Amino acid sequence: MKKQLLSGILLLAPAVSVLASTQYDEAAKYASSMKSQGMDVMKGTDPVATLPDYTANPAETGYYGGTTATSNPVLENAGNSEMHSGEAGKTIMEVINNRPKDLISTDAPFISGSLDMEDKAETIMSGTDTQCKDVNVDKTQITNYTCERTPAVELACTRTAGAGGGHYEPTTVVSTYTVTNDQFSYSYDGNKSVYFSFRAPASGTVISASATLHFNDRNMYYQMAWWGINESVSVNQNKTWEIPGAPGTILNEGSASVQGVILNKNCLNGDQGRCQEYARKTLNWLQGGAEGWMSVTLTMRVTGQKWVPDVVWSENCPFDKNDQVLINSVCTDPGGDRTFAVNGENYILHSDCWQYTDTYVSQSADNGTCNDYMQNPACTVGSTTCLDSLNGTCLREQVVFSCEEKTSGSAQLCGGELVCADGSCDQLDDGKSNGFQSAVSGLAALAAAGKDIAALNGVNVSAFTGEGHSCRKAMAGFSNCCKDSGWGNDAGLASCNTEEKALAEAKKRKLSIYVGSYCAHKVLGVCVEKKEGYCQFDSKLAKIIQEQGRRGQLGIGFGSGSSPDCRGLTVAELQHLDFKRINFADFYDDLENGATLPADQELLDRIEDQIAGKITGGGQ
């Protein structure tokens, strides 16, 4: 069976090979015929018809210098312009200009040491190939210290006045009105006279008035009494004349204050018997408005409404001012009268001030616990971390300084080899010149943890517990009670309470951890008092373990500024800490100043055993 199957496979192989070869040749010919068509299609493509919103010369082409360009002046100029004139650029430049300078001094040990070695190289090495010579060996030790400081910052909002919107104000204007025939009221007294009246079109004083009287019949004569005078009017179809008694008349809009009488003169000088006929005919003509009509044109000084623009205020505030306290408001563009063009017409507006600058955040540079390192030429800034910011501006920062210390030892240089006969330069050789400090600090931390745990008697076991405290940073009658330094020189700090003064001392001694700032009191949605929250500890060791262990290794925060979480570390959390990674450098000063530390080895061993027992027994 296996042989038959193998034979079948062998017979099938040539057929498959022939079939594959034929298909391959056909595919190859097709591919060869198509290989140039792709580029031909692309060459004939109209990008305008194919690509939506295509443009051959977009605005960005001004920034493209070509594939061989090494620079682009247009793009660089645009960037420089935005940096120096844009709001974001101005803010960046202000931060850069106001940051304290971290200078590297030539007095730093690593610089001065290298310069000394360079100057003495020939003297030191002279004759070393044949003799031993006493030499002093120097070595630079680098220690990292962590501190906090506040950079100089001033953040403000601007309120700018201008023309916008508007309202109507009463004003005196001269207007012309025409009272047409249909606005007149006519009546007949049943005898000779036709009475008429019209309602005043507006309230005001008549400056001038003219009347027009029209009759289709020619040579009609009338006697008119109105406006306090009698007028004789000879009408030749159309008659327009100025009314001499009208100027100065005060009219009230809507009242029938203008009345008069018209009498055909035939009733005065002529056929008295036809007076009634003439009167009725005059009435009919005027009431009909076709064969006779009259109108009055009045020019009056009236009280009208004048539209004027208002002074409106616009505010530019790059942060939420409701969460900040207004510290100061200054007029930065003095007031007065200014002319604004609105809808093609000029208006004069007045404002006591055209722009105010409202300062909400104002702090001068405070070196805080970084001052000693900033003044030490052997210390340089290793890194900075912003702890609190507003609108991209750092309000408080944590700084790591790398400080160098020169250590010396005596040795002999023999044939190019350094020989340290008494062991005094061993520390220089193995790089452990601060090993004792680090070891003692670690043991002190263990002792402190053991003391905390032992005192709890197995209930809610934790170590290095702190307390939450706060200080007022901005308030009415502003006095910064959260200052890190300068308390002895600032008389304004007298209003700070006991807790704030104690917190300031704790910060000075590096016993506190900054948690955050918050608005402590609002009135009608506006912040009137702001505070900073801290966790305060009894010892530097507790602060170091909490900050580097909890925040740095365990990734556990300290809550918020309004509610600091200063709880101690649990046994489980202590088990996860790598004490070798903790930098105890801030504690070294206490060692050098003779602070009380567990020094007896037996006591240290016993404390370590107690801690191990507590951890193994679950804190019982």
Short account of what is shown:
With about 625 residues, this protein is an alpha+beta fold.
Write the layout of secondary structure elements.
Layout: H1 2-34, H2 37-43, H3 47-50, H4 73-85, H5 87-98, H6 109-125, E1 132-149, E2 153-179, E3 184-188, E4 193-198, E5 204-215, E6 220-226, E7 229-235, E8 238-242, E9 250-251, E10 258-264, H7 275-288, E11 292-316, E12 328-342, E13 345-363, H8 371-375, E14 379-390, E15 393-414, E16 417-419, H9 426-430, H10 435-456, E17 462-463, E18 467-474, H11 498-508, E19 512-523, E20 526-536, H12 540-553, E21 559-560, E22 563-564, E23 569-570, H13 571-575, H14 585-592, H15 601-616
Antiparallel strand pairs: 1-15, 2-11, 2-13, 3-4, 4-10, 5-8, 5-9, 5-11, 6-7, 6-10, 12-13, 14-15, 15-16, 17-23, 18-20, 19-20, 21-22
Looking at this protein, list some descriptive labels:
elongated, seven-stranded antiparallel sheet, 37% strand, 620 residues, single chain, 30% helix
The share of residues in extended strands comes to 35-45%
End-to-end CA span: 78 Å
Number of strands: 23
- Counting DSSP H or I runs of 4 or more residues, the number of helices is 15
Helix content: 25-40%
Integer average pLDDT: 79
Main sheet?
Answer: 7 strands, antiparallel
- The gyration radius over C-alpha positions equals 50 Å
Which regions contain 5 or more consecutive residues with pLDDT less than 50?
1-20
Structural class: alpha+beta
Write down the overall geometry: elongated
